[in-house]
Automatic annotation (TrEMBL):
UniProt protein name: Insulin receptor b
Protein source organism: Xiphophorus couchianus (Monterrey platyfish)
InterPro entries (alphabetical): Ig-like_fold, Rcpt_L-dom, Rcpt_L-dom_sf
Lineage, uppermost ranks: Eukaryota, Metazoa, Chordata, Craniata, Vertebrata
Domain Receptor L-domain: 22-133, 264-369
Length: 437
C-alpha cells in the first residue's frame, strides 16, 4: 500500500521512524532530530524504499548512531522545496556519527539550497557535484565537516583503476562524482518525476499514457501538483505552463507563510486581501507564491500593506471579477507603483475602485489603472481621494527658470519667478540639487 503523507516531525526514538512506512510522497517537510540515545545498531535493517518525493524540505539534526542515509532512503528522488527551512531544502546539521550523505537516488532539488554543517565524521562531500542536482549552487553552505584530506574518499572502480562515475570539474579539480564507494552520482533527468502505486517515473516531453491506466484520485491530485494535468480519459500530458488550480474561499495574506499556502494557485474563488506589514525578501517570496494567480473571482484588497512598494509580484493577474468594489487600496504608506503598464494588462469586469491614504502612490498611476481596466466611468466622486494619494511623493515636476544666479565665496544665491499651483496646498516646497564642480 502506498500513501501520500503529510509533514513528518520524527524525534526522540528510532522506532518513531516507523511512521514513514508506506509513504511514497510527503506533502510537506521531513524532520528527523534529537535522537540522543540511538546507536548504530538501531538503524540496521531499517529502510523506507517507498519514499520518493518530499515537497518541502528535509532536515536532520543530532540523530546519534546514524552513519548513512543510503539504506534509510534508498529511493528518495526529489526534494521540491515548495516551502523552505530558512532558504534551505536539505539541512544536515550536527550529525555526529554520519559518515556519508548517501542519498544516491536524489536527482533533483527543485528550489532552495543545501546546508551541511558541523558533522565531524562526514566524508564524501568533495566527491559530490551539487550542480547535477540543483539549478544554482551559490547559496549552498557546506562548512565545518571532516577535513577532506582525512577522508580518503574512493569512488566505485577507483581501486581497480577504472573510471565508472561521471566526471566533472569543480574549482579546477576534475574527478569522478559519487555518493560513496558503492554508488556513483548520476545526472538529474529533465522532466517531472511522478509516482503512481509506489513506482516513480521520470517523464520527458512525451505524453504519459500507458503508465496511467490505473490512476487513483490521490495520484491525479499529485500529478496536478507536479505540473501534469490528468484528462478524463485517464491519460496525462504536460500542461502548457502551470496546470490550472482553483483555490476555494476568501484568502488573507498577512505573512510570507500565508502567501506560501497559495503557491500554485491560478484562480482565487473568492476575495483576496493583502495586508503584509513586514519581512525579509518580501517581493521575491510573494512572486514565488502568488505569481501564478491569473483570476480573482471576488475583489482584491491591499490594506495597510506597509511592506509593499509595487504589485508587480502579481505578474500574471489579468482578471478581477469584482463585487461592489473590485480593487481596494487603503493606507499603504510605501506603495509607489501598481504595475508596469507597458507590460501588464488588467480587466475588472464589474465594480468600482477605491484609493485612499496611499501617500506615495501618484494620481497618475491610479488614472492609468482606471483607463486600462475600464473602471473610470463606474467610479463615484469619493472613491478616489486626490488629497491623500501621492501627497508625500514627487508626482508632478515643472521646470523653474532662474532669473538670477550669484556666486559668492561661501554661497550661491538663486532667484526664480514666483511659482504657485492652482491650489496653494499642492506646493510642499522646493528642492535644489547640486554637485561640486
Amino acid at each position: 500500500k502506498s500513501l501520500i503523507c503529510q509533514s513528518k516531525n520524527i524525534r526522540n526514538n528510532v522506532t518513531n521512524l516507523r511512521s514513514l512506512e508506506n509513504c511514497t510522497i510527503i506533502e510537506g517537510h521531513l524532520k528527523i532530530l534529537l535522537m540522543f540515545g540511538a546507536k548504530s545498531g538501531d538503524f540496521q535493517g531499517l529502510s523506507f524504499p517507498k519514499l520518493r518525493v518530499v515537497t518541502d524540505y528535509v532536515l536532520l539534526f543530532r540523530v546519534y548512531g546514524l552513519e548513512t542515509l543510503s539504506d534509510l532512503f534508498p529511493n528518495l528522488t526529489v526534494i521540491r522545496g515548495n516551502n523552505l527551512f530558512f532558504n534551505y531544502a536539505l539541512v544536515i546539521y550536527e550529525m555526529l556519527q554520519l559518515k556519508e550523505v548517501g542519498l544516491h537516488s536524489l536527482m533533483n532539488i527543485t528550489r532552495g539550497a543545501v546546508r551541511i554543517e558541523k558533522n565531524p565524521d562526514l566524508c564524501y562531500l568533495a566527491t559530490l557535484d551539487w550542480s547535477m542536482i540543483l539549478d544554482s549552487v551559490e547559496d549552498n553552505f557546506i562548512v565545518a565537516n571532516k577535513n577532506e584530506r582525512e577522508c580518503g574518499d574512493v569512488c566505485p572502480g577507483t581501486a581497480q583503476g577504472q573510471t565508472l562515475c561521471t566526471q566533472t570539474t569543480i574549482n579546477g579539480h576534475f574527478r569522478g562524482r559519487c555518493w560513496s564507494q558503492t554508488y556513483c552520482q548520476t545526472k538529474h533527468l529533465h522532466g517531472c518525476i511522478i509516482s503512481v502505486h509506489g513506482h516513480a517515473y521520470v517523464t520527458s516531453k512525451a505524453r504519459v499514457s500507458s503508465l496511467m491506466l490505473l490512476v487513483t484520485t490521490a495520484a491525479v491530485k499529485y500529478l496536478e501538483k507536479m505540473k501534469f494535468l490528468c484528462l478524463f480519459r485517464l491519460t496525462c500530458e504536460p500542461c502548457a505552463g502551470p496546470c490550472p488550480k482553483a483555490c476555494q474561499g476568501n484568502k488573507t495574506i498577512d505573512s510570507v507563510t500565508s502567501a506560501q499556502a497559495l503557491r500554485g494557485c491560478t484562480v482565487i474563488e473568492g476575495n483576496m486581501v493583502i495586508k503584509i506589514r513586514g519581512g525579509t525578501n518580501i517581493a521575491a517570496e510573494l512572486e514565488a507564491s502568488l505569481g501564478q494567480i491569473e483570476v480573482i473571482k471576488g475583489y482584491l484588497s491591499i490594506r495597510r500593506a506597509y511592506a509593499l512598494v509595487s504589485l508587480s509580484f502579481l505578474r500574471k493577474l489579468h482578471t478581477i471579477k469584482g463585487d461592489s468594489y473590485a480593487f481596494y487600496a487603503l493606507d499603504n504608506q510605501n506603495l509607489r507603483q501598481l504595475w508596469d503598464w507597458s507590460k501588464h494588462n488588467l480587466t475588472i469586469e464589474r465594480g468600482r475602485t477605491f484609493f485612499h491614504f496611499n501617500s506615495k502612490l501618484c494620481m497618475s498611476e491610479i488614472r492609468k489603472l482606471e483607463k486600462i481596466t475600464g473602471t473610470k466611468e463606474r467610479n463615484q466622486k469619493n472613491d478616489i481621494a486626490a488629497r491623500t494619494n501621492g501627497d508625500q511623493a514627487s508626482c508632478e515636476m515643472q521646470l523653474l527658470n532662474f532669473t538670477s544666479v550669484k556666486v559668492r565665496y561661501n554661497m550661491i544665491i538663486l532667484k526664480w519667478n514666483s511659482f504657485w499651483p492652482s491650489d496653494y496646498r499642492d506646493l510642499l516646497g522646493f528642492m535644489v540639487l547640486y554637485k561640486e564642480a
